[in-house]
Amino acid sequence: MSAKPAPSVCVFCGSRPGLRPAYAKDARATGEMLAARGWRLVYGAGDVGLMGEVARAAQAAGAETFGVIPEHLFKLEVGKRDLTTFVVTENMHERKKVMFMNSDAIVVLPGGAGSLDEFYEVLTWRQLGLHAKPILLLNTEGYWDPLLALNAHVVAEGFAGASLLDGVMTVATVADLEAALETALG
Asked: How far, CA to CA in Å, does 151 sit from each of 31, 53, 146, 156, 171?
């Protein structure tokens, strides 16, 4: 009987570094934590911004890495070819699908419109009952506070049920993220 493969954690995050040093620090710590736990990093295959930080840290600490990048972003996001697995897709939608299908949990670090798109797609799928994978927001220095307020507003105004809020766990630190993932992934 073969052993169950180690969990894979999809990380959605910015292709830019953001303005606060804490964002890159937490991205690196997330990559290191995934490696220390023996968990595979699944991410957008870029070598820039927070994407590059999390991937380089995970690789340096010995993690298996699975990157997915669409053709049109290969140059812009500096496709990182030295990953354990490197997949080039035709478009953004296919990228999200491949990342999602190859992960057991989703973590969202600070990021921009692309990260929000990725977050809301997996959250919508969860709300519709299409999956039960854990979704975790790493709320570095309160970055996601406006998003959390918006989600609460959407529910309060009757445009979504409480499942919108119940489908996401918010954590403040990488240590909290690790503990939450350990509980969620068993």
From this structure: 28, 28, 9, 9, 16
**Is 166 a residue whose pLDDT tops 80?**
yes
74 secondary structure, DSSP code: T
Spatial CB neighbours of 158, under 8 Å, sequence gap ≥ 6? none
Report whether 11 contacts 41 (CB < 8 A): yes
Task: Show the tokens assigned to 25.
Answer: 């620090």
Give exposure, 100-120, as e/b (b: 16+ Cβ within 10 Å).
Answer: beebbbbbbbbbeebbeebbe
Q: What is the distance between the alpha carbons of residues 162 and 165, in angstroms, rounded to a whole number?
A: 5
User: How sure is the predictor about 180, in pLDDT bands with cuts at 50, 70 and 90?
Assistant: very high
pLDDT at 147 over 80: yes
Q: What is the pLDDT of residue 2?
A: 65
Cβ neighbours of 164 (radius 10 Å):
17
Give the model confidence (pLDDT) of 102-115 as tens digits: 999 999 999 999 99
Domain 8-185 has CATH 3.40.50.450: yes
Strand segments, DSSP code E, in the chain are: 8-12, 40-43, 65-70, 85-89, 105-108, 135-138, 169-171
